[in-house]
Design brief:
By secondary structure, this protein is α/β, with parallel strands linked by helices. 55% of the residues lie in helices and 12% in strands. Helix 9 (241-256) links the parallel strand 6 (228-232) and strand 7.
Length: 476
Protein backbone atom coordinates (compact mmCIF):
# COMPACT_ATOMS: atom_id res chain seq x y z
CA UNK A 1 0.00 0.00 0.00
CA UNK A 2 2.75 2.44 0.91
CA UNK A 3 4.56 1.75 -2.33
CA UNK A 4 1.47 2.74 -4.34
CA UNK A 5 1.08 5.91 -2.28
CA UNK A 6 4.64 6.95 -3.05
CA UNK A 7 4.21 6.21 -6.77
CA UNK A 8 1.00 8.25 -6.91
CA UNK A 9 2.61 11.12 -5.02
CA UNK A 10 5.57 11.08 -7.39
CA UNK A 11 3.25 11.13 -10.37
CA UNK A 12 1.31 14.05 -8.85
CA UNK A 13 4.51 16.00 -8.25
CA UNK A 14 5.70 15.42 -11.80
CA UNK A 15 2.34 16.59 -13.11
CA UNK A 16 2.47 19.70 -10.93
CA UNK A 17 5.99 20.54 -12.13
CA UNK A 18 4.83 20.08 -15.71
CA UNK A 19 1.92 22.45 -15.06
CA UNK A 20 4.34 25.01 -13.61
CA UNK A 21 6.54 24.73 -16.70
CA UNK A 22 3.50 25.27 -18.90
CA UNK A 23 2.52 28.31 -16.84
CA UNK A 24 6.01 29.78 -17.16
CA UNK A 25 5.99 29.23 -20.92
CA UNK A 26 2.60 30.95 -21.17
CA UNK A 27 3.84 33.97 -19.20
CA UNK A 28 7.17 34.54 -20.99
CA UNK A 29 6.43 33.05 -24.42
CA UNK A 30 7.43 29.76 -26.01
CA UNK A 31 10.59 31.15 -27.64
CA UNK A 32 12.12 32.44 -24.40
CA UNK A 33 11.02 29.30 -22.56
CA UNK A 34 12.71 27.09 -25.16
CA UNK A 35 15.94 29.08 -24.90
CA UNK A 36 16.21 29.53 -21.12
CA UNK A 37 14.20 26.72 -19.51
CA UNK A 38 13.47 23.71 -21.70
CA UNK A 39 16.96 22.22 -21.72
CA UNK A 40 18.65 24.39 -19.11
CA UNK A 41 16.62 23.95 -15.92
CA UNK A 42 15.22 21.24 -13.70
CA UNK A 43 12.29 22.15 -11.44
CA UNK A 44 11.88 20.28 -8.15
CA UNK A 45 8.93 20.80 -5.82
CA UNK A 46 9.24 19.90 -2.14
CA UNK A 47 6.93 21.06 0.67
CA UNK A 48 6.01 24.34 -1.00
CA UNK A 49 9.59 25.09 -2.06
CA UNK A 50 10.24 25.23 -5.79
CA UNK A 51 13.91 24.61 -6.58
CA UNK A 52 15.12 25.77 -9.99
CA UNK A 53 18.19 23.72 -10.83
CA UNK A 54 20.56 25.26 -13.37
CA UNK A 55 23.88 24.25 -14.88
CA UNK A 56 26.10 27.15 -13.77
CA UNK A 57 26.11 30.46 -11.84
CA UNK A 58 25.80 32.51 -15.03
CA UNK A 59 22.43 30.98 -15.94
CA UNK A 60 21.31 31.20 -12.31
CA UNK A 61 22.06 34.93 -12.16
CA UNK A 62 20.40 35.59 -15.50
CA UNK A 63 17.22 33.65 -14.71
CA UNK A 64 16.93 35.14 -11.23
CA UNK A 65 17.32 38.72 -12.48
CA UNK A 66 15.04 38.36 -15.52
CA UNK A 67 12.45 35.67 -14.72
CA UNK A 68 12.19 35.35 -10.93
CA UNK A 69 8.84 37.16 -10.81
CA UNK A 70 7.45 35.11 -13.72
CA UNK A 71 8.51 31.83 -12.13
CA UNK A 72 7.02 32.82 -8.78
CA UNK A 73 3.70 33.92 -10.27
CA UNK A 74 3.49 30.79 -12.44
CA UNK A 75 4.13 28.55 -9.43
CA UNK A 76 1.56 30.40 -7.32
CA UNK A 77 -1.01 30.08 -10.07
CA UNK A 78 -0.59 26.29 -9.98
CA UNK A 79 0.02 25.43 -6.31
CA UNK A 80 -0.69 28.62 -4.39
CA UNK A 81 1.84 30.31 -2.13
CA UNK A 82 5.39 29.00 -2.48
CA UNK A 83 9.04 30.02 -2.33
CA UNK A 84 11.45 29.87 -5.29
CA UNK A 85 15.13 29.02 -4.85
CA UNK A 86 17.85 28.72 -7.52
CA UNK A 87 20.41 25.93 -7.17
CA UNK A 88 23.43 24.81 -9.20
CA UNK A 89 23.14 21.29 -10.64
CA UNK A 90 26.31 20.33 -12.57
CA UNK A 91 24.50 17.34 -14.09
CA UNK A 92 22.47 19.74 -16.22
CA UNK A 93 25.58 20.89 -18.07
CA UNK A 94 25.54 17.79 -20.22
CA UNK A 95 21.88 18.24 -21.08
CA UNK A 96 22.26 21.72 -22.56
CA UNK A 97 21.95 21.94 -26.28
CA UNK A 98 24.13 24.71 -27.68
CA UNK A 99 22.20 24.74 -30.95
CA UNK A 100 19.41 27.04 -29.81
CA UNK A 101 20.99 29.96 -31.64
CA UNK A 102 20.71 29.14 -35.32
CA UNK A 103 21.60 31.39 -38.22
CA UNK A 104 19.59 30.85 -41.38
CA UNK A 105 20.61 32.46 -44.60
CA UNK A 106 17.07 32.34 -46.02
CA UNK A 107 14.41 32.90 -43.35
CA UNK A 108 10.74 33.02 -44.30
CA UNK A 109 9.26 36.40 -45.16
CA UNK A 110 7.85 38.30 -42.21
CA UNK A 111 4.07 38.57 -41.92
CA UNK A 112 3.98 41.86 -40.07
CA UNK A 113 6.20 44.67 -38.88
CA UNK A 114 6.16 43.65 -35.21
CA UNK A 115 7.63 40.28 -36.10
CA UNK A 116 10.92 42.01 -36.79
CA UNK A 117 11.06 43.24 -33.21
CA UNK A 118 10.13 40.02 -31.46
CA UNK A 119 11.58 37.36 -33.74
CA UNK A 120 14.23 35.07 -32.30
CA UNK A 121 16.41 35.34 -35.38
CA UNK A 122 17.60 38.50 -37.08
CA UNK A 123 16.48 38.84 -40.67
CA UNK A 124 18.93 38.58 -43.50
CA UNK A 125 18.35 39.55 -47.09
CA UNK A 126 18.11 36.66 -49.51
CA UNK A 127 16.63 37.27 -52.96
CA UNK A 128 12.86 37.33 -52.89
CA UNK A 129 12.40 38.36 -49.29
CA UNK A 130 10.18 41.42 -48.90
CA UNK A 131 9.62 43.62 -45.88
CA UNK A 132 6.26 45.11 -45.03
CA UNK A 133 7.49 48.71 -44.81
CA UNK A 134 9.11 50.23 -47.91
CA UNK A 135 10.10 53.62 -49.28
CA UNK A 136 7.12 53.48 -51.64
CA UNK A 137 4.66 53.67 -48.74
CA UNK A 138 6.54 56.35 -46.80
CA UNK A 139 4.80 59.74 -46.84
CA UNK A 140 7.38 62.51 -47.19
CA UNK A 141 6.78 65.94 -45.67
CA UNK A 142 8.72 68.84 -44.20
CA UNK A 143 9.02 67.04 -40.86
CA UNK A 144 10.82 63.99 -42.26
CA UNK A 145 12.22 65.06 -45.65
CA UNK A 146 15.82 65.27 -44.48
CA UNK A 147 15.68 61.83 -42.85
CA UNK A 148 14.07 60.35 -45.96
CA UNK A 149 16.68 61.81 -48.31
CA UNK A 150 19.49 60.61 -46.07
CA UNK A 151 17.98 57.11 -46.00
CA UNK A 152 17.70 57.06 -49.80
CA UNK A 153 21.30 58.24 -50.15
CA UNK A 154 22.52 55.35 -48.00
CA UNK A 155 21.41 52.75 -50.54
CA UNK A 156 21.25 54.74 -53.79
CA UNK A 157 24.76 56.21 -53.77
CA UNK A 158 27.64 53.94 -54.72
CA UNK A 159 29.52 55.06 -51.63
CA UNK A 160 27.28 56.11 -48.74
CA UNK A 161 28.09 59.61 -47.50
CA UNK A 162 26.64 58.82 -44.06
CA UNK A 163 28.06 56.12 -41.83
CA UNK A 164 26.44 55.67 -39.47
CA UNK A 165 23.05 57.13 -40.24
CA UNK A 166 21.34 57.79 -36.90
CA UNK A 167 17.61 58.60 -37.06
CA UNK A 168 15.86 59.76 -33.90
CA UNK A 169 12.44 61.10 -32.96
CA UNK A 170 9.32 60.36 -30.94
CA UNK A 171 7.05 57.33 -31.09
CA UNK A 172 5.20 56.53 -34.29
CA UNK A 173 6.93 59.04 -36.55
CA UNK A 174 8.44 56.64 -39.10
CA UNK A 175 11.89 55.63 -37.82
CA UNK A 176 11.22 51.92 -38.20
CA UNK A 177 9.62 52.57 -41.58
CA UNK A 178 12.83 54.19 -42.86
CA UNK A 179 15.05 51.41 -41.50
CA UNK A 180 12.97 48.71 -43.15
CA UNK A 181 12.77 50.84 -46.29
CA UNK A 182 16.56 50.94 -46.46
CA UNK A 183 16.75 47.17 -46.12
CA UNK A 184 14.05 46.63 -48.72
CA UNK A 185 15.80 48.98 -51.16
CA UNK A 186 19.04 47.08 -50.56
CA UNK A 187 17.20 43.84 -51.35
CA UNK A 188 15.93 45.23 -54.66
CA UNK A 189 18.99 47.11 -55.88
CA UNK A 190 21.72 44.83 -54.54
CA UNK A 191 20.22 41.32 -54.27
CA UNK A 192 23.58 39.72 -53.54
CA UNK A 193 24.24 41.99 -50.54
CA UNK A 194 23.85 40.75 -46.98
CA UNK A 195 21.81 42.82 -44.55
CA UNK A 196 20.37 42.45 -41.09
CA UNK A 197 17.47 44.29 -39.52
CA UNK A 198 16.86 43.77 -35.81
CA UNK A 199 16.09 45.65 -32.62
CA UNK A 200 18.75 46.44 -30.04
CA UNK A 201 16.89 44.15 -27.65
CA UNK A 202 17.31 41.26 -30.09
CA UNK A 203 21.00 42.12 -30.42
CA UNK A 204 21.40 42.01 -26.63
CA UNK A 205 19.46 38.74 -26.33
CA UNK A 206 21.49 37.07 -29.08
CA UNK A 207 24.71 38.26 -27.49
CA UNK A 208 23.77 36.81 -24.09
CA UNK A 209 22.60 33.59 -25.70
CA UNK A 210 25.85 33.31 -27.64
CA UNK A 211 27.74 33.65 -24.36
CA UNK A 212 25.58 31.00 -22.77
CA UNK A 213 25.90 28.53 -25.63
CA UNK A 214 29.58 29.34 -26.29
CA UNK A 215 28.82 30.43 -29.85
CA UNK A 216 30.29 33.92 -29.76
CA UNK A 217 32.28 33.28 -32.93
CA UNK A 218 29.11 32.43 -34.86
CA UNK A 219 27.33 35.47 -33.43
CA UNK A 220 30.18 37.84 -34.32
CA UNK A 221 30.60 36.34 -37.75
CA UNK A 222 26.95 36.83 -38.52
CA UNK A 223 26.86 40.43 -37.27
CA UNK A 224 30.15 41.55 -38.77
CA UNK A 225 29.93 40.01 -42.23
CA UNK A 226 26.94 42.05 -43.35
CA UNK A 227 26.96 44.83 -45.92
CA UNK A 228 24.21 46.64 -44.01
CA UNK A 229 23.36 46.41 -40.31
CA UNK A 230 20.13 48.17 -39.28
CA UNK A 231 19.49 48.36 -35.52
CA UNK A 232 16.21 49.74 -34.17
CA UNK A 233 15.60 51.13 -30.64
CA UNK A 234 19.28 51.71 -29.91
CA UNK A 235 18.37 53.36 -26.59
CA UNK A 236 17.75 49.81 -25.29
CA UNK A 237 21.54 49.42 -25.01
CA UNK A 238 21.67 52.01 -22.20
CA UNK A 239 22.88 50.66 -18.84
CA UNK A 240 24.15 47.45 -20.49
CA UNK A 241 27.94 47.96 -20.53
CA UNK A 242 28.89 44.48 -21.76
CA UNK A 243 26.44 44.61 -24.65
CA UNK A 244 27.58 48.15 -25.48
CA UNK A 245 31.19 46.96 -25.62
CA UNK A 246 30.24 44.13 -27.98
CA UNK A 247 28.23 46.47 -30.18
CA UNK A 248 31.12 48.95 -30.25
CA UNK A 249 33.46 46.27 -31.62
CA UNK A 250 30.82 45.21 -34.15
CA UNK A 251 30.37 48.81 -35.26
CA UNK A 252 34.12 49.40 -35.56
CA UNK A 253 34.59 46.26 -37.63
CA UNK A 254 31.84 47.23 -40.07
CA UNK A 255 32.94 50.86 -40.26
CA UNK A 256 36.57 49.99 -40.98
CA UNK A 257 35.42 47.61 -43.72
CA UNK A 258 33.37 50.38 -45.34
CA UNK A 259 30.05 48.71 -44.59
CA UNK A 260 26.88 50.60 -43.68
CA UNK A 261 25.35 50.93 -40.23
CA UNK A 262 21.89 52.47 -39.78
CA UNK A 263 20.46 53.16 -36.33
CA UNK A 264 17.20 54.45 -34.88
CA UNK A 265 16.34 55.67 -31.40
CA UNK A 266 13.79 57.68 -29.46
CA UNK A 267 16.45 60.20 -28.46
CA UNK A 268 19.59 61.92 -29.75
CA UNK A 269 22.75 59.90 -28.91
CA UNK A 270 23.92 62.57 -26.47
CA UNK A 271 20.66 62.45 -24.51
CA UNK A 272 20.54 58.67 -24.06
CA UNK A 273 21.45 58.13 -20.43
CA UNK A 274 24.09 55.58 -19.41
CA UNK A 275 25.39 55.15 -22.94
CA UNK A 276 29.17 54.89 -23.14
CA UNK A 277 31.06 57.92 -24.42
CA UNK A 278 32.79 55.77 -27.01
CA UNK A 279 29.48 54.75 -28.56
CA UNK A 280 28.11 58.29 -28.45
CA UNK A 281 31.23 59.54 -30.28
CA UNK A 282 30.81 56.85 -32.95
CA UNK A 283 27.12 57.64 -33.42
CA UNK A 284 27.59 61.40 -33.81
CA UNK A 285 30.51 60.93 -36.22
CA UNK A 286 28.03 60.21 -39.01
CA UNK A 287 24.69 61.74 -39.93
CA UNK A 288 22.32 62.34 -37.01
CA UNK A 289 18.87 63.43 -38.20
CA UNK A 290 15.64 64.00 -36.31
CA UNK A 291 12.10 63.22 -37.45
CA UNK A 292 9.56 65.75 -36.19
CA UNK A 293 5.81 65.18 -35.77
CA UNK A 294 4.09 65.48 -39.18
CA UNK A 295 2.58 68.83 -40.26
CA UNK A 296 -1.06 69.20 -41.32
CA UNK A 297 -0.45 68.54 -45.02
CA UNK A 298 1.55 65.39 -44.26
CA UNK A 299 -1.05 64.15 -41.80
CA UNK A 300 -3.75 64.53 -44.45
CA UNK A 301 -1.72 62.53 -46.98
CA UNK A 302 -1.05 59.81 -44.39
CA UNK A 303 -4.79 59.52 -43.74
CA UNK A 304 -5.57 59.31 -47.48
CA UNK A 305 -3.00 56.60 -48.12
CA UNK A 306 -4.07 54.53 -45.14
CA UNK A 307 -7.74 54.83 -46.09
CA UNK A 308 -6.85 53.63 -49.57
CA UNK A 309 -4.87 50.70 -48.15
CA UNK A 310 -7.95 49.44 -46.29
CA UNK A 311 -10.24 50.13 -49.26
CA UNK A 312 -12.23 52.90 -47.62
CA UNK A 313 -13.30 56.16 -49.25
CA UNK A 314 -12.94 59.01 -46.75
CA UNK A 315 -14.09 62.48 -47.88
CA UNK A 316 -11.56 65.30 -47.77
CA UNK A 317 -13.48 67.19 -45.11
CA UNK A 318 -13.29 64.15 -42.83
CA UNK A 319 -9.58 63.76 -43.59
CA UNK A 320 -9.04 67.41 -42.67
CA UNK A 321 -11.06 67.01 -39.45
CA UNK A 322 -8.97 64.05 -38.32
CA UNK A 323 -5.64 65.60 -39.33
CA UNK A 324 -6.50 68.87 -37.61
CA UNK A 325 -7.31 67.20 -34.28
CA UNK A 326 -4.81 64.35 -34.12
CA UNK A 327 -1.28 65.68 -34.30
CA UNK A 328 1.01 63.51 -32.19
CA UNK A 329 2.04 60.61 -34.41
CA UNK A 330 1.22 58.46 -37.42
CA UNK A 331 -0.19 55.51 -35.46
CA UNK A 332 -2.81 57.78 -33.93
CA UNK A 333 -3.97 58.85 -37.40
CA UNK A 334 -4.08 55.28 -38.67
CA UNK A 335 -6.04 54.19 -35.61
CA UNK A 336 -8.61 56.91 -36.22
CA UNK A 337 -9.10 55.93 -39.88
CA UNK A 338 -9.32 52.26 -38.94
CA UNK A 339 -11.94 52.95 -36.26
CA UNK A 340 -13.99 55.07 -38.65
CA UNK A 341 -13.78 52.45 -41.39
CA UNK A 342 -14.85 49.69 -39.02
CA UNK A 343 -17.85 51.70 -37.81
CA UNK A 344 -18.93 52.42 -41.40
CA UNK A 345 -18.69 48.71 -42.27
CA UNK A 346 -20.75 47.70 -39.25
CA UNK A 347 -23.40 50.31 -40.08
CA UNK A 348 -23.22 49.49 -43.79
CA UNK A 349 -23.11 53.18 -44.60
CA UNK A 350 -20.77 55.71 -46.19
CA UNK A 351 -18.33 57.78 -44.18
CA UNK A 352 -19.38 61.41 -43.81
CA UNK A 353 -18.63 64.34 -41.53
CA UNK A 354 -21.50 63.62 -39.12
CA UNK A 355 -20.30 60.05 -38.65
CA UNK A 356 -16.69 61.20 -38.18
CA UNK A 357 -17.65 63.72 -35.50
CA UNK A 358 -19.72 61.14 -33.63
CA UNK A 359 -17.20 58.30 -33.86
CA UNK A 360 -14.13 60.42 -33.19
CA UNK A 361 -15.55 62.64 -30.42
CA UNK A 362 -14.24 60.55 -27.52
CA UNK A 363 -11.03 59.74 -29.34
CA UNK A 364 -10.25 63.41 -29.94
CA UNK A 365 -11.16 64.39 -26.37
CA UNK A 366 -8.67 61.87 -25.05
CA UNK A 367 -5.81 63.07 -27.23
CA UNK A 368 -2.64 64.10 -25.48
CA UNK A 369 -2.01 67.83 -25.22
CA UNK A 370 0.60 69.14 -27.60
CA UNK A 371 3.34 69.06 -25.00
CA UNK A 372 6.12 66.56 -25.57
CA UNK A 373 8.88 65.43 -23.27
CA UNK A 374 11.47 66.94 -25.61
CA UNK A 375 9.77 70.35 -25.20
CA UNK A 376 9.91 69.99 -21.42
CA UNK A 377 13.56 68.93 -21.44
CA UNK A 378 14.59 71.82 -23.65
CA UNK A 379 12.72 74.38 -21.53
CA UNK A 380 14.07 73.03 -18.24
CA UNK A 381 17.64 72.68 -19.52
CA UNK A 382 17.59 76.24 -20.86
CA UNK A 383 16.16 77.64 -17.61
CA UNK A 384 18.67 75.95 -15.32
CA UNK A 385 21.63 76.44 -17.66
CA UNK A 386 22.33 72.78 -18.31
CA UNK A 387 21.71 70.31 -21.17
CA UNK A 388 19.24 67.47 -21.84
CA UNK A 389 22.16 65.03 -21.82
CA UNK A 390 23.06 66.14 -18.28
CA UNK A 391 19.45 65.62 -17.19
CA UNK A 392 19.64 62.09 -18.65
CA UNK A 393 22.93 61.36 -16.91
CA UNK A 394 23.48 59.93 -13.44
CA UNK A 395 25.06 63.15 -12.12
CA UNK A 396 23.58 64.33 -8.83
CA UNK A 397 24.85 67.85 -8.28
CA UNK A 398 22.23 70.38 -7.16
CA UNK A 399 21.59 72.08 -10.51
CA UNK A 400 21.20 68.88 -12.53
CA UNK A 401 19.14 67.15 -9.84
CA UNK A 402 16.79 70.14 -9.64
CA UNK A 403 16.42 70.26 -13.43
CA UNK A 404 15.82 66.52 -13.54
CA UNK A 405 13.13 66.66 -10.84
CA UNK A 406 11.31 69.54 -12.54
CA UNK A 407 11.43 67.60 -15.84
CA UNK A 408 9.85 64.59 -14.15
CA UNK A 409 7.19 66.70 -12.46
CA UNK A 410 6.24 68.57 -15.62
CA UNK A 411 6.19 65.33 -17.64
CA UNK A 412 3.79 63.79 -15.16
CA UNK A 413 1.60 66.89 -15.20
CA UNK A 414 1.51 67.73 -18.90
CA UNK A 415 1.87 64.36 -20.67
CA UNK A 416 0.11 61.02 -20.43
CA UNK A 417 3.37 59.16 -19.92
CA UNK A 418 3.57 56.77 -16.96
CA UNK A 419 6.30 57.03 -14.34
CA UNK A 420 8.03 54.05 -15.90
CA UNK A 421 7.99 55.62 -19.36
CA UNK A 422 9.23 58.96 -18.04
CA UNK A 423 12.07 57.25 -16.19
CA UNK A 424 13.10 55.30 -19.28
CA UNK A 425 13.08 58.40 -21.49
CA UNK A 426 15.01 60.45 -18.92
CA UNK A 427 18.05 58.21 -18.93
CA UNK A 428 16.60 54.84 -17.87
CA UNK A 429 15.70 55.85 -14.33
CA UNK A 430 13.30 53.56 -12.48
CA UNK A 431 9.73 54.60 -11.69
CA UNK A 432 10.49 54.99 -7.97
CA UNK A 433 13.08 57.67 -8.80
CA UNK A 434 10.48 59.52 -10.85
CA UNK A 435 7.89 59.36 -8.08
CA UNK A 436 10.41 60.59 -5.50
CA UNK A 437 11.46 63.48 -7.74
CA UNK A 438 7.83 64.49 -8.31
CA UNK A 439 7.08 64.42 -4.58
CA UNK A 440 10.05 66.66 -3.86
CA UNK A 441 8.86 69.27 -6.38
CA UNK A 442 5.26 69.05 -5.11
CA UNK A 443 6.45 69.67 -1.57
CA UNK A 444 8.63 72.60 -2.63
CA UNK A 445 5.75 74.14 -4.61
CA UNK A 446 3.32 73.67 -1.69
CA UNK A 447 5.77 75.44 0.64
CA UNK A 448 6.85 77.85 -2.10
CA UNK A 449 10.40 77.04 -1.03
CA UNK A 450 13.31 79.21 -2.05
CA UNK A 451 15.51 77.23 -4.41
CA UNK A 452 19.07 78.01 -5.40
CA UNK A 453 21.34 76.59 -8.05
CA UNK A 454 24.41 77.48 -10.03
CA UNK A 455 23.84 78.64 -13.59
CA UNK A 456 26.31 79.70 -16.29
CA UNK A 457 26.30 83.26 -14.91
CA UNK A 458 26.70 82.22 -11.26
CA UNK A 459 24.42 81.42 -8.33
CA UNK A 460 20.68 81.93 -8.80
CA UNK A 461 17.80 82.06 -6.30
CA UNK A 462 14.09 81.80 -7.05
CA UNK A 463 10.82 80.70 -5.44
CA UNK A 464 9.51 77.26 -6.48
CA UNK A 465 6.15 78.58 -7.75
CA UNK A 466 7.81 81.26 -9.84
CA UNK A 467 10.11 78.63 -11.41
CA UNK A 468 7.10 76.45 -12.22
CA UNK A 469 5.20 79.35 -13.77
CA UNK A 470 8.13 80.35 -15.99
CA UNK A 471 8.72 76.78 -17.13
CA UNK A 472 5.04 76.19 -17.96
CA UNK A 473 4.88 79.43 -19.91
CA UNK A 474 7.95 78.30 -21.83
CA UNK A 475 6.66 74.85 -22.78
CA UNK A 476 3.28 76.28 -23.83
Amino acid sequence: MQGFVREDACRTTESTVSDINDAIAERIGQQKFKIWFKNSTQLTLTDGLLKVGVANPFISTWLESHFHADITEAARAVIGNCQVMFTIDPQLAGRQRPDTLEWHSQPAPAQNARQYHSAAKPRSGPPGQKLKLTFDTFVVGQSNELAYNAAKAVVCDKQSPFNPLFIHGGYGLGKTHLLQGICDEMRKTRPAAKWLYMSAEDFANHFVLALKTRKLDAFRSRMRQTDLLAIDDVHFLASKPSTQEEFLHTFNTLDLAGRQVVLASDAHPKTIGQLSEKLVNRFVSGMVVKIEPPDFKTRCEICRRFAKSINKHVPDEVINHIADNLRSNIRELQGAILKLGAFASLQNSKIDMAMAQMVMAEHIERCDPMVHLSDIESAVASFFGTTPSAIHSSKKDRTIALARHFSMYLARKHTRLSSTEIGRLLGHKNHATVLLGCRKIEQQITQNAQLNWRGPAGNKVCQAREILEQLENSIR
